[in-house]
Amino acid sequence: MSDLQGDMQDLYRELILDHSRNPRHFGRLSDATHTADGINPLCGDKLKLYLRVDGQGRIESSSFEGSGCAISVASASLMTDTVTGLPVDQAEACFEKITQRLQDGDPADNSNPGLEKLRALDGVRDFPARIKCATLAWQALHSALENDTTPATTE
Ligand code: ZN
Fold it and tell me: pTM above the 0.70 mark?
């Protein structure tokens, strides 16, 4: 391993530690339009995700509560950070990209620079048991958006 790779891994580890210790968007969202529960029994990670989607189909705000390992909390924090402000279809596209990349690897995909900081999670690919920790929040996002209770947007 080169020093540069080592430095990048340190940087990413710091980012994950930072997000797990000081999660963004942590807490309950009282006026959520979408919610979903996520459970990862393998590790004991649990979270509840709250989304508020506006009339234009944009995720106006998001939050989560729950408990779990550092990876799951950091991933939920990064996820809510990433999707807040995005149209629902873009958030769904992120879900597909992230879960695919974590499960199968997709290092060549740089088409969405907004996802760059999520590369912090790429390290979990070396630890297959932790992949579910990292994808849990994204699975919750997907199920929250699937159980759509808001009026459909015009396409
Ligand atoms: Zn976990």
Answer: yes
CATH number of the domain encompassing residue 98: 3.90.1010.10
Report CA(45)–ligand 1 centroid distance (Å). Answer: 5
Ligand 1 geometric centre to CA of 64 (Å) = 15
Give the C-alpha separation, 136 to 133, whole Å.
5
Burial 56-92 (b: 16+ CB within 10 A, else e): ebbbebbbbbbebbebbbbbbbbbbbbbbebbbebbb
Number of domains within the chain:
1
Q: Ligand 1 (ion): which residues have CB within 5 A?
A: 43, 45, 69, 72, 133
pLDDT tens for each residue of 32-89: 999 999 999 999 999 999 999 999 999 999 999 999 999 999 999 999 999 999 999 9
Spacing, Cα 151 to ligand 1 middle (Å): 34
Query: Ligand 1 center to residue 46 CA distance, Å?
Result: 9
Distance 133 CA to ligand 1 centre (A): 4
Cα of 16 vs centre of ligand 1, distance in Å, is: 13
Identify the domain containing residue 139 by its residue range: 3-153
